Amino acid sequence: MRPDERTTRSVRYLLGLLEEPAARRVCHRLRMPFEGEVGPTPSYDWDLTSFLNQQAPGSAVLWMLQEDDPEVNAELYTDALPVGLRRDILEGVSFAPEPAKLAEPVPVSPHLWRSPWDWQQNATDVPVADVLDALYQVGGRKAFRQARAAAARIRNEHWPAVAQAHRDVPLPGFARWTVSVRADCPADLREEFGSHAKFRHRVRQAGIFDGPAEYLAAAAPAAGLHRHGGGAHRRGRHGARAGVRGRTRGRPCGRARAAW
Questions:
Q1: What is the pTM of this model?
Q2: Cα angle vertex 231, ends 230, 235, to 5°?
Q3: Counting beta carbons within 10 angstroms of the beta carbon of residue 161, is it exposed (0 to 12), middle (13 to 18) or buried (19 or more)?
Q4: Before 42, cis peptide (omega within 30)?
Q5: Domain range annotation of the chain
Q6: Span 142-151, pLDDT tens digits
Q7: Highest mean pLDDT, choosing among 155-164, 213-222, 250-259
């Protein structure tokens, strides 16, 4: 039984990790042609949003925002996104790291849809002083809920003030945690919140990674390949992914060729 076209394209993508002679032998074993289309067709509509919301870690949302693509921002713009990030998108904030940060505002896509709840949440901007007050007032039976709501209000321009406030007077425990698992929390601030192995493990469990390499290394080989090859990856990431993808070479996919 031969694999269908969709499976064939995906298998060819994975075989790109092998040398050509080995890849040809695998294709022969699977009774599929070696030459042909490779990989999934990139999808920038609902499939992308579904993938990000259901499977990808929180850090993947930040990596997508860093593309500064209006259409990507529109796809990511859901009520699940922290309200501070949503307001940044509406105001055209550039999320690209220096020196690639845009000087001009990122346009807002006409395809961006806002729910009634979002219109209510983003009716007014919340100054950083009010955000800090809310973070420091966290406590009681609803401490975690309060901390999560306050951390969600942090905007891109607020991070320096949040970092300085924590250095002056450390944030409460729940506030530190909810701020640290914001995907766009600066790495140096997250390091100040906790640098021991247990804290870093919990942060990774929450879907926060230093980069794609750490994300792939945290997965089993098969899962790592699945994470790396989905249609949700943007064109701007293809070059950066090439070096990371090479790290899977020689892992079980490459060693146990007969397993194919």
A1: 0.70
A2: 115
A3: middle
A4: no
A5: 5-39+234-259, 44-120, 126-210
A6: 999 999 999 9
A7: 155-164
